[in-house]
Structure formats: structure tokens, C-alpha cells
Write a structure and sequence with these properties.
alpha+beta, five-stranded antiparallel β-sheet, 16% strand, 56% helix
Length: 486
């Protein structure tokens, strides 16, 4: 696992490094500031449109007022009233600071407060539209507004047009001032947002950087490293730190188990090897050794070799079970008959210790299971119960089922297991009674094999025990295995 983590870290270092903080800042800029800029631009455009529309309405209204005055005074036809009206129009033009022109039906300028275009023909679109009963006001490219209102003659005919020309410089100045204020405010807001984002990104990225440092050190084999869990409120970063620490706990536990396992294997193999060495040296160092002693010593050596072979075979079985290299052959199995055969096989060992081996099955039960491997697993449980139960004790084995699961119980009146060691009995080479290693025999791997086999049957195994009172182990496996056995 350390090799895989280190390899992954090295491969990761080959990739270009982009700080998460900068990614977050870029995200905030695109997701927050850009919409603000677009919103500000839209608002300014709307304000500009509003001011222009209001100016057009005012100018068009003023043009209609002058058009009414021209119509009532017959400005185009009565020279006597004309001079008086011209003075009024000129005063209005000077007061409002716009230019007024009066054109006849042929688009000829008959009056101009600017005195520039009198006598000229102006074929402007606004003038033409006004003569066609469509009073209008439009903004021009040169920054002015043309507002044209028709002059109505007898019989509702259009005899002329009042054209007002006004500059939009004041409007643009106002809008410019508003824009400056708005962009200044927006710039200040963007600066504040950036400062806040830098702080927030630091708050979020610092824990992530710490996690990366912890994971990098763990990949180098320092499993004692732990991430600092900060913050009262649970969020993704806190959950990530907690998960990282949990992973570190598991890795440390796995590493500790690996070291313990190597130590246990070395110890278990060292004992028979030492015996073989002592026996062989005893023969080699003695002269004229009787044949009977050779035979006895060779028997002892063979026994020790058998012990080592059993340990190695069990280790290979466990490795294959862990890596799922041993396929389980699930088929309909008569569990009642299987358990009966197990009891018959172990009955002589129980009788030798005057132990009452009781077997209880209320009905015949069938389930999908690998009969050979499950039989070996249950045999280990019953065998252990008999080994660790004193003479005149009792071992009770029962089989039952409901509509979904099978339940196998093995209860004894043996030495029991201390409460703090109950969860460790399925560890490899773990023995509760360290003084009985060689007396009781076995490799110390039987319960580990049993546990792995039950797990591969998608079942569970629970232990209840009290010292000097006995132990009860309950196995549960489903009647029907899932479609995919894994």
C-alpha cells in the first residue's frame, strides 16, 4: 500500500501544479464579478435610455406646443402675427437652449432661431414622417435630437412642420458622471470582494494544503501523521480531515498488524525449526547412536516438519482467501447432515476429555453454501470449544433458521475470553491462553480461516464470552447467496 501511495504521489508531481486558491479566485471572478460588471453596464444603459426617452418626450411636447401656436396665429400665412410669434418662439428657444425651425409643406425652412437654414430645403426623415401624420423624435449620430411635430391646416391637412434640434451634451455629461460614480463604486466593491475572496480561499485552501502534507507524509510511511480538525460546524473540509484521520488509523492498524503478523510467523516457524536443529545436532554430535534413538529423533523431526507444513498451508489458504483466489463452489447443501458429520468426527476427542458434546437441530435445513469450506470453518469452532473446555464440561452445538438466514451456535463451558480480547480472537496467531500454544496444538490460524470463510459466505460471526464461565459463538449465513458471489 505504501508503494502504491508513493507511486501515485510521484506521478502526481509530474503534472503541472495549479494552486487551488487561484482556481477558487478565478471561479469567484467569473461567477461573481463578471455578472456584476454586466449588471452595472445594463443598468447604465437603461439609465441612458430613460434620460433619452424623457428628453425626446419633452422636446416633442414642446414642438407640439409651438405647432399649436403656429396654427392658431396662422404663422405661415399671416405676416402681421408672424413677428410677435417669432419673438415668443425665440424666447422659448433661448430659455430652453434648443433650436427651433419652422418648415412649410415642401420642407422649405421659413423660420430658424439659428438663422442658418432659412430658405433651405431640409428633407429630413423626421420632417417627412411628421408631414405623414407621424410626429417623431430621434437621436442623431452627431449627439443631437430631432423632434418634429406637424402643423395642421384647414381640413386636417399638414401644412408644415415644427422641428426642434437639441444637443444631448448635458445628458451625456450627467450619464458620464453617473458612470464614473458607478464604476468607482463597482471598483471599490470588486476590491472588497477580492479581499474577502482571498481570505475565504485561504480559509478553505489552508486545511486542504495541510491534508496534502499529511497524505504526502503518510505515503512516505509516516502513518502516525494526523490532520488537524478545525471548526465547530461540520463541513466538507472537516469531514475530509476526519476521513483522512480514519484512513490513517486504518493504515497504522494494518501496518501494526503486518508487523505483528511477520513477528508471529517468525515465532511460529522458529519453534519447530529450533527443535529440528536441536534434534539433528544431538544425533550428529553423538557417536554410536542406537538405531532406536535415530528412529525416535527422526519421528520428532518429522512431527516438527509437519507442524511447519501445517502453518505454511494455513498461511497460503488465508492469503488466497484474502485475495479471493479460492473460488467458492456454492450449491444446495444439507446443513443438518453436514453438522451431524462434524459432531460424529469430533465426538471421540470430546469423549477422551469426558466432555458432553450436545447436538441440537430442530429441523432439516438446506442452504446455498460451499460445503467443504463451511464444514472446515464450523469444525474449527467446535474443535476449539472442545480444546478449551475442561474435563467434565459441556459443548452445545445448535442449528436453526428463519426465512432468510441460517444460525449456527457453538457454546461451551470453557475457560472463557477476557472482555478486552474478545474482538481479537480472529487475528492470525492470536491466542488467549499464551501458555497453551504447544499443548493444544494447531497453528493459531484456524479462527482466522473460519472468519474469512464466513465473510465470503456473506455472513457474520459474533462472540459472547465471560472468563471462567464459557464462550458462545453465533454464526449467521444467508439461505440464498446473492447472484454475484464476488
Amino acid at each position: 500500500m505504501v508503494t502504491i501511495l508513493t507511486k501515485a504521489t510521484k506521478e502526481k508531481k509530474k503534472l503541472p501544479f495549479i494552486s487551488l486558491r487561484w482556481i477558487m479566485l478565478a471561479g469567484y471572478l467569473v461567477g461573481g464579478i463578471v455578472p456584476l460588471l454586466l449588471l452595472a453596464s445594463t443598468i447604465l444603459h437603461s439609465v441612458q435610455g430613460y434620460f433619452l426617452d424623457e428628453r425626446k418626450k419633452v422636446l416633442l411636447s414642446q414642438a407640439n406646443v409651438i405647432s399649436g401656436q403656429v396654427t392658431s396665429s396662422e404663422f405661415l400665412f399671416d405676416e402681421e402675427n408672424r413677428s410677435a410669434l417669432e419673438e415668443t418662439i425665440l424666447e422659448t428657444s433661448q430659455e430652453k437652449n434648443f433650436r427651433v425651425m419652422i418648415l412649410d409643406s415642401s420642407c422649405l425652412v421659413t423660420y430658424d432661431t439659428g438663422y442658418e437654414d432659412v430658405g433651405k430645403t431640409l428633407l429630413l426623415p423626421e420632417v417627412v414622417q411628421a408631414l405623414q401624420h407621424k410626429d417623431t423624435a430621434k437621436e442623431q449620430k452627431n449627439g443631437t435630437v430631432y423632434a418634429a411635430a406637424s402643423i395642421v391646416g384647414a381640413g386636417d391637412t399638414r401644412v408644415g412642420v415644427v422641428l426642434i434640434v437639441d444637443s444631448l451634451a448635458d445628458v451625456h455629461d450627467i450619464l458620464g458622471d453617473i458612470g464614473k460614480e458607478a464604476y468607482l463604486l463597482l471598483g471599490t466593491l470588486v476590491l472588497l470582494v477580492l479581499i474577502v475572496m482571498v481570505i475565504i480561499s485561504k480559509v478553505f485552501t489552508e486545511p486542504v494544503k495541510n491534508l496534502i502534507d499529511v497524505i504526502r507524509k503518510m505515503s512516505e510511511g509516516h502513518f502516525e501523521q494526523r490532520a488537524k480538525v478545525r471548526g465547530i460546524v461540520h463541513n466538507e473540509i472537516v469531514d475530509l480531515a476526519i476521513s483522512c484521520n480514519q484512513m490513517a488509523d486504518q493504515l497504522e492498524k494494518v501496518e501494526s498488524s503486518r508487523q505483528q503478523f511477520v513477528s508471529n510467523v517468525s515465532h511460529e516457524l522458529k519453534t519447530p525449526l529450533s527443535s529440528v536443529k536441536v534434534l539433528s545436532e544431538s544425533i550428529l554430535l553423538q557417536e554410536d547412536v542406537p538405531k532406536e534413538m535415530y528412529v525416535e529423533f527422526l519421528h520428532d523431526i518429522t512431527s516438527e516438519v509437519d507442524c511447519m507444513t501445517a502453518i505454511i498451508n494455513d498461511l497460503l489458504t488465508l492469503v488466497k482467501l484474502d485475495q479471493k483466489e479460492i473460488p467458492l463452489n456454492f450449491k444446495e447443501t444439507n446443513l443438518t447432515q453436514m453438522m451431524t458429520d462434524i459432531i460424529k468426527r469430533l465426538q471421540p476427542m470430546a469423549d477422551a476429555k469426558h466432555i458432553s458434546l450436545q447436538w441440537d437441530a430442530s429441523k432439516e435445513i438446506h442452504a446455498e453454501a460451499d460445503e467443504m469450506k463451511l464444514s472446515l470453518a464450523i469444525s474449527n469452532l467446535v474443535d476449539n470449544a472442545v480444546k478449551y473446555t475442561p474435563e467434565e464440561g459441556t459443548v452445545k452445538v445448535s442449528l436453526d433458521a428463519d426465512h432468510q438466514n441460517v444460525f449456527i451456535s457453538v457454546a461451551d463451558t470453557g475457560i472463557g475470553i477476557p472482555e478486552d480480547e474478545v474482538n481479537r480472537i480472529f487475528e492470525r496467531f492470536y491466542r488467549v491462553d499464551k501458555t497453551r500454544d504447544r499443548e493444544t496444538g494447531g497453528t493459531g490460524l484456524g479462527l482466522s480461516i473460519t472468519h474469512s470463510t464466513i465473510m465470503m459466505h456473506k455472513g457474520s460471526i459474533k462472540v459472547n464470552s465471560k472468563e471462567e464461565e464459557g464462550t458462545t459463538i453465533l454464526v449467521r449465513i444467508p439461505l440464498k447467496q446473492p447472484t454475484t458471489h464476488g
